[in-house]
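Narrative of accomplishments. A recurring question from our advisory board has been how the design workflow behaves on a single, concrete structure rather than in aggregate. To address it, we present the structure tokens for one chain from the evaluation set, followed by the sequence designed for it. No filtering or post-editing was applied between the two.
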């Protein structure tokens, strides 16, 4: 897909970070937008600022882990605009530093419900609409942590691997159709992901989150949005964002076990270099 003028683009998690940057970047290219977030205030801020510049925006505040709400949103979007061209399952949530055998399973399930089932429901609800268009794209946001396992990040990593797995299946299944599937793997993007994490308010983890944000999240969300849009235009199945994402992808593809160990050791060293002691078993 080369041109986005009058294309209908759906973006979940559009109240902040990459989602908000994508909404702005598509709006500049003349797209019409259907935006979601479960943070009503943040979603209103994104959509009001774009609507004020004349962009046609439909917004719907719901939790992507709510299957029924997602199907209603897909129907309402199709009714409102008459068609849907691009669906971007971007909404996601982080969880801090936990030793696996100590982590609260309710937190793990909530991460899976949002990061994996939210993406699955969004894909399932919107693909029937996307298949009606001559050209369409489904963009599911995974992570570099959907490419290699990271110690003490089981919930987040597993959810992002699951998204990558879903994307791989969909690429095969819809290969002969009008629909392109894009699996997106950002490196560290400077967004509100740490502050929005499930456990950020817990004092124990705030230090970990802040240190992580400072050390790892350096790429601007606007740059991330441009890389994603470029990837859609070039029909790239795997969209890597940032130098570290490219390096990590190469390392774990060619040296799966050694690559994973090197990545983990590097992260640990970087955290320790800023005075952060990670939990060990
Ligand atoms: N920031 C990074 O370094 C990074 C790296 C790799 C992948 N990602 C992924 O990119 C995506 C966007 O994250 P971001 O960095 O822009 O974070 P962010 O916290 O700035 O934005 C995420 C948005 O999603 C919304 N959201 C969260 N859970 C939701 C739910 N259940 N229903 C509806 N909306 C919900 C939040 O309210 C927020 O507005 C996420 O899937 C994240 O996992 C981010």
């Amino acid at each position: 897909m080369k041109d986005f003028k009058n294309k209908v683009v759906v973006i979940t998690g559009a109240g902040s970070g990459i989602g908000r940057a994508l909404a702005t970047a598509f709006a500049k290219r003349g797209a019409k937008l259907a935006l979601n977030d479960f943070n009503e205030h943040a979603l209103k801020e994104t959509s009001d600022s774009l609507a004020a510049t004349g962009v046609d925006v439909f917004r719907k505040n719901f939790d992507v882990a709510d299957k029924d709400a997602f199907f209603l949103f897909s129907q309402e979007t199709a009714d409102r605009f008459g068609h849907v061209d691009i669906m971007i399952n971007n909404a996601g949530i982080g969880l801090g530093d936990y030793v696996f055998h100590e982590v609260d399973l309710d937190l793990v399930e909530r991460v899976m419900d949002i990061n994996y089932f939210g993406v699955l429901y969004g894909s399932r609800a919107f693909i029937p609409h996307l298949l009606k268009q001559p050209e369409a794209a489904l963009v599911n946001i995974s992570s570099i942590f959907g490419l290699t396992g990271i110690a003490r990040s089981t919930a987040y990593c597993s959810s992002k691997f699951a998204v990558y797995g879903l994307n791989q299946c969909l690429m095969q299944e819809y290969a002969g159709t009008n629909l392109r599937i894009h699996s997106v793997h950002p490196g560290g993007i400077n967004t509100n992901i740490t502050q929005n994490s499930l456990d950020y308010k817990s004092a124990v983890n705030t230090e970990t989150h802040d240190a992580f944000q400072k050390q790892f999240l350096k790429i601007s969300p606007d740059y991330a949005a441009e890389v994603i849009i470029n990837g859609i235009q070039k029909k790239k199945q795997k969209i890597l964002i940032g130098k570290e994402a490219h390096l990590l992808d190469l390392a774990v593809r060619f040296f799966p076990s050694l690559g994973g160990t090197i990545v983990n050791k590097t992260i640990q060293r970087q955290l320790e270099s800023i005075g952060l002691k990670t939990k060990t078993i």
